[in-house]
Amino acid sequence: MIETAYQRLTSRFARIATIHEASSMLGWDAAAMMPPGGAAARSDQLAVLAGLAHGLLIDPATADDLAQAEQAEAADAWQAANLRLMRHAHTRGTALPADLVEAQARANSSCEQVWREARRRADFSLVAPHLTEVVRLVREAAQALAPALGLSPYDALMDGFQRGIGAADVAPVFADYERFMREALPRAEERQARRPPPLRPKGVFAAATQEALCRKLSARAGLDYEHARLDRSIHPFCGGTPSDVRITTRYDEADFSQSLMGVMHETGHALYERGLPAAFARQPVGEAAGMAAHESQSLIIEMQACRSDAFLGWLSRELAETFGGDEAVYAPDNLGRLWRHVERGCIRVDADEMTYPAHVILRFGLERALVAGELSVEDLPGAWNEGLHGLLGITPPDDARGCLQDIHWYDGGFGYFPSYTLGAMAAAQLMAAARRALPRLDAAIANGDLSPLVGWLRANVHGLGNRLGFNDLLRAATGKPLDPRDFEAHLTTRYLA
Amino acid sequence: MIETAYQRLTSRFARIATIHEASSMLGWDAAAMMPPGGAAARSDQLAVLAGLAHGLLIDPATADDLAQAEQAEAADAWQAANLRLMRHAHTRGTALPADLVEAQARANSSCEQVWREARRRADFSLVAPHLTEVVRLVREAAQALAPALGLSPYDALMDGFQRGIGAADVAPVFADYERFMREALPRAEERQARRPPPLRPKGVFAAATQEALCRKLSARAGLDYEHARLDRSIHPFCGGTPSDVRITTRYDEADFSQSLMGVMHETGHALYERGLPAAFARQPVGEAAGMAAHESQSLIIEMQACRSDAFLGWLSRELAETFGGDEAVYAPDNLGRLWRHVERGCIRVDADEMTYPAHVILRFGLERALVAGELSVEDLPGAWNEGLHGLLGITPPDDARGCLQDIHWYDGGFGYFPSYTLGAMAAAQLMAAARRALPRLDAAIANGDLSPLVGWLRANVHGLGNRLGFNDLLRAATGKPLDPRDFEAHLTTRYLA
């Protein structure tokens, strides 16, 4: 039997994906299990594996097979998409000169180290020269990637996290949301002020009991623990591989809110991985469709489903049964006031769903200006504080709670921030479409049953893998590209009705 | 700066070792953490990593650099030994044709699967044809390795687990021990029969309490948990890497014996990994000196130190303090009768230290005959039962408790069994040497202080890495090659005095 160029490519990309699986497991271990003394050896292990995967990708044989496979007719749309994604990965992998990649690795690593100290001391000047170098190299990389991908430099960076959407699509959507929020936020605050403040859970809620409940709820949402683990880490995340998903959370024995909502968030990510098309496992087309698509899946479970009135009514009884004590805390209305509380704050990761996009809009504007060379690093703290004030009317008390709060830029991550809000908006848009398709959706959710929702997501998102870019995925699932109005309608119903 | 061939080799072997580190971590995860659904993907990951490491080893550039480096003068004995070990690894890696390696992987894997069923049903005939094929391929491999290594076929197999000792060294040592045991075992049994039977621990001994004690005792023995973890697995083992050692055990809440002695055993392995020469990390000369050397380090901690009268006197108080209840169980004399009980049994892994070598001597004889083609697979059950009866005077009730009990042969592992007894003998020989060098050794052990022993092992075993083969290592540390008399003297003192 003669192997075709396409078949050779699928073998090669399967090997690459298998190496990435190993790296993903080692990354999970580093966050959830590894003793501190293992850190240095672990970075070496990850670097060697990354180098091996990259070597397979940029091997001249890959280019030869791609050229040959592109001459043949694709068997079907899946194969055509897979081949396009192989070409796309190869283009990204070969567009950057090796010395630039190395310089970035060095600069990002030392900048990130210094950032930790700068944030601790709230002293931006410490890290400014390092960030200047990181930005210089990011611009160089963006300029090398742009022509290869046929995108603008900033879009070439975004494409590294989420393909199929660019700044020209995002900017009007964010502008629309900004207008909406300027009007909606004061009204939501006013309405909130008229209601009694929530009763706060007063633990001790034993970590083991919280963990058992988290496991039960995530399993009920469809996570199969024959193919998954739930563990603890400082920063919750979802890692592992599609057949062995690893989610983590942390437990605060004074309050179950963070672990519970956090685990439902990670469960959304995990269900996406579990639902990817098995027939294309380890192929580019069988992967998740990008970071914004991934975030849409965590947020549709956490924000759209689990924080809905319907679900809270059901969850209320589960909580009372599990933890006992003062039942007023678990009343659906109280859970709503607790977990749907709007507040203007400086810290992105603590933000509610209405103000969160403001944090992203701020960073989107600033990072585009940095990449375009229109904003210099030394002017960043001022621009940040001015921008936040313009959006939310508040000013960070120091840079630790301002432009030093997030790791992303300091480790070279430019073009990633929009994913959070694109995901939140897509979650609302998908939920609206699911509701149209499934009239009994909310009735099921009111019984704590997410299976109709998850079934719809499997058919319309998970099972499509990476066949479609972000806007095309939304078009296929909801009939339109990214549209902020579903998200705005969701917020209006939840916070203003 | 011009890189020498030797420097290129050190980089290449460091990459290979780093891949092996990743595999080792994934192996630990598979045993201690992985949900069952991750198994298929995990074997793919391990296979891809093994293939990549092998590819780097047999790359033509490795051969060129070896030839060139061997022309140059070595900087010192370490470098000379490292280069010899690189050549040795390359010779082993290239001696077998790729199709033989593949055929072995397939045959071992399917034989191992069938073995599980055959053992469950106690039906050797199920697996006999598979084992015949495994043995055929092992013989082929041994015959290919032998001329390349300048060893006999069986020694070439042994060399894969423990270099520096062969069947001609082992056979007289085992014969000597057999003579000793025939005389000593009845006397030990007689003496044992005159003493009261041990009081058995009657739990519940909570797993968490056992685990805390295991952690405390292993830390006290020198295991630094900044660079180590203790977890649970069905089959206890020591894995991970020198800077991040992972040991496991299992807990029986009815009895703390297994977890406690098991953890001290794995601690011995872990201390060896931790004590390897850091200057030669990821180099062949910086690795442990082989499986028998490794077993000597687990057994010197578990059998020589922790089951000694001196240690049991100290441990007695720790146990009473930790678990409370009936203090008579923790009396040093009772612990001695509990943990130093001689009994003729069919199962190797359950054997005491005096009869354990009989199980190994049996397998050593049988596997040499299989490899030499002097014993056919269909005659194995009969030869096994006859051999065990000749050594211990007992006959297995069925093959599940006879020639089907161990996985080793069924997954292609020939030449490994001697390591267990070589390790036990080396442990006694090293202990005798440490005692000569450190007159206060037993006084320290009687205070629960293993640091003088571990310090001596670091200087005389751990810190030497893989510079010396097994017999040379013993020569350097004890003044003589493997000698069964120290082990026999140890048993005489412990079981006959």
SSE succession of chain A: HHHHHHHHHEEEHHHHHHHHHHH
Sheet with the most strands of chain A? 3 strands, mixed
- Kindly provide the radius of gyration of chain A, computed on alpha-carbon positions and rounded to a whole number of angstroms: 23 Å
Sequence stretches where pLDDT stays below 50 over 5 or more residues of chain A: none
- Overall residue-averaged pLDDT value of chain A: 97
Total discrete domains of chain A: 2
| Secondary-structure arrangement, i.e. CATH architecture of the largest domain in chain A | Orthogonal Bundle
How are strands sequenced across the largest beta sheet of chain A?
1-3-2
> What is the subunit organization of this protein?
homodimer
Q: Please name the CATH topology of the largest domain in chain A.
A: Neurolysin, domain 3
- CATH level 1 class label of the largest domain in chain A: Mainly Alpha
The general outline of chain A is globular
> How many strand segments of chain A?
3
Helix % of chain A is 55-70%
Q: How much strand of chain A?
A: under 5%
Pairing-aware structural class of the strands and helices of chain A? mainly alpha
Task: Calculate the terminal CA-CA distance of chain A, rounded to whole Å.
Answer: 66 Å
Number of helical regions of chain A: 20
